[in-house]
Design goal:
The structure holds two protein chains of two kinds. Chain A is mainly α. Helices cover 74% and strands 0% of the residues of chain A. Chain A contains nine helices and no strands. In chain A, helix 2 runs parallel beside helix 7. In chain A, 44% of the residues are buried. By secondary structure, chain B is α/β, with parallel strands linked by helices. Chain B has one domain: Glutaredoxin (3-Layer(aba) Sandwich), CATH 3.40.30.10. Helix content of chain B is 52%, strand content 13%. Chain B contains eight helices and seven strands, in the order H-E-E-E-H-E-H-H-H-H-H-E-E-E-H. Chain B has a five-stranded mixed sheet with strand order 2-4-3-6-7. In chain B, strands 1-5 form a two-stranded parallel ribbon. Classes of the chains: A mainly alpha, B alpha/beta.
Chain lengths: 180, 242
């Protein structure tokens, strides 16, 4: 079911390009996040040529091999791919005006998107979102007591995105029915 | 029926907007609050505003400087001997110095940023040991100690201090008794703590945390173990300054 639904969506090159674009954006964001200030500074630097402005963000993508553990690099890449595919499927659903999206499917998509973003944040910057939110209540130090130091949220993100993907493909495959 | 359809169609865009707002909010909060009640993370600190960089302690003769002290570009690195990302970045910085050091264009300043919460006792002891190496063997001994330490040790607080520290001291040619006494004396504890606090004050939230300083004083923050090609890009840009 999963593969036939994916096949149905991705036989359209537009959706392939869209998913690739989103995945690439999420991946780039994850690798750039620790150095956004640096990127902004270089982008606005009067002496920097256009080539230099383009080369730095590209070079920083290489931090996936130097600034990530094997685990965090793996779930960052997985989240980026799953997020891109997920969003393409959601757009497919919306564009095809599926009238009877079951509430459960929508909720799964919602949780998947949000949890995926949480996961990306975790992978990119040592649980950015959680530390930002938790720092307000002074509880961020708790992350150091987690066995994977917050990597758990990245893994959770992968799980929720996979679940979301499954739910959406089910919606795509299910025939339209009137529920009322 | 129509109402259900409208609600469902709106749910997805709302979810995406909400998620985006969440990220944006987190980014804003992360960058605004440099006071860090949170534990610093190795390798993956959060991007900071440039204003905090001005809190960097001035570079003096007491610093460990590799290369020309009057170089056009100085990279000040705040590092932790037990951090695996610092180990990787140490190699990157050695590569940078091989390329830009001989002609005096770039200098490397090493400061301590031991993350006690992640690497209790060991990271701080090793920082102190490196200071003792400098005291007993001179500035070159500090760099020999640092290079050898990163070569020999596995990081992540798995270093066997009782074996490794005497081994490095022997290799560097230090008086081993004086070295052990120096570490035990605690005379450099405050110095290490001051550098740690300075790292936090400049916006460092994880290791390695580096600040590239140009001749005119402009500062570029480099968070984490960025690849050689990225560091080289920033160095080349900084060298273009007149």
């Amino acid at each position: 079911m999963l593969f036939s639904a994916l096949k149905r969506v991705f036989k359209h090159p537009t959706y392939v390009l869209f998913a690739l674009g989103v995945s690439a954006t999420v991946f780039a964001f994850a690798t750039w996040l620790p150095n956004l200030t640096l990127i902004v500074e270089v982008m606005g630097h009067p002496n920097a040529s256009l080539a230099q402005k383009l080369e730095l963000p590209i070079a920083l993508l290489g931090s996936i091999t130097t600034n990530f553990t094997l685990l965090s690099a793996s779930y960052t890449i997985l989240i980026a791919i799953l997020f891109g595919v997920n969003l393409a499927l959601i757009v497919y659903l919306v564009r095809n005006r599926v009238a009877t999206l079951k509430q459960s499917g929508t909720t799964a998509g919602f949780l998947g998107v949000v949890s995926g973003l949480f996961g990306v944040g975790c992978a990119a910057c040592g649980s950015l979102i959680l530390t930002s939110v938790l720092s307000l209540i002074g509880a961020g130090g708790a992350l150091t007591f987690l066995p994977l130091g917050g990597g758990e949220f990245g893994i959770l993100g992968v799980g929720l995105l996979a679940w979301s993907l499954y739910s959406i493909t089910k919606q795509i495959k299910n025939p339209l029915v009137c529920s009322s | 029926m129509e109402e259900t359809k409208t609600t469902n169609n709106l749910a997805i865009p709302i979810a995406i907007v909400l998620a985006g707002a969440l990220i944006a909010g987190a980014l804003y909060l992360g960058q605004r609050d440099g006071s860090t009640t949170v534990a610093p993370q190795p390798g993956q600190g959060v991007a900071q505003g440039t204003q905090e960089l001005e809190n960097m302690a001035p570079i003096t003769n007491d610093d460990h400087i590799l290369g020309n002290p009057d170089a056009k570009v100085v990279i000040v690195e705040y590092s932790d001997f037990e951090c695996p990302f610092c180990k990787r970045f140490h190699e990157t910085m050695n590569q940078i110095m091989e390329e830009y050091g001989p002609n005096g264009e770039v200098a490397w300043v090493y400061r301590h940023f031991p993350l006690e919460q992640l690497h209790p006792v060991k990271a701080k002891t090793e920082a102190v040991a490196s200071e003792c190496a400098a005291e007993l063997g001179g500035k070159d001994a500090f760099w020999e100690f640092a290079n050898r330490f990163f070569e020999l040790t596995p990081s992540n607080n798995q270093t066997d201090l009782d074996t490794v520290l005497p081994q490095i001291a022997r290799g560097v040619g230090l008086d081993q008794n004086a070295f052990a006494n120096c570490i035990a004396s605690g005379k450099y504890d405050e110095h290490v703590q001051n550098e740690f606090e300075n790292a936090i004050a400049t916006g460092g939230q994880g290791t390695p945390w580096s600040i590239l300083v140009t001749k005119s004083g402009q500062k570029f923050p480099i968070s984490g173990a960025q690849p050689y090609s990225a560091v080289k890009q920033i160095v080349d840009l900084a060298l273009q300054e007149n």
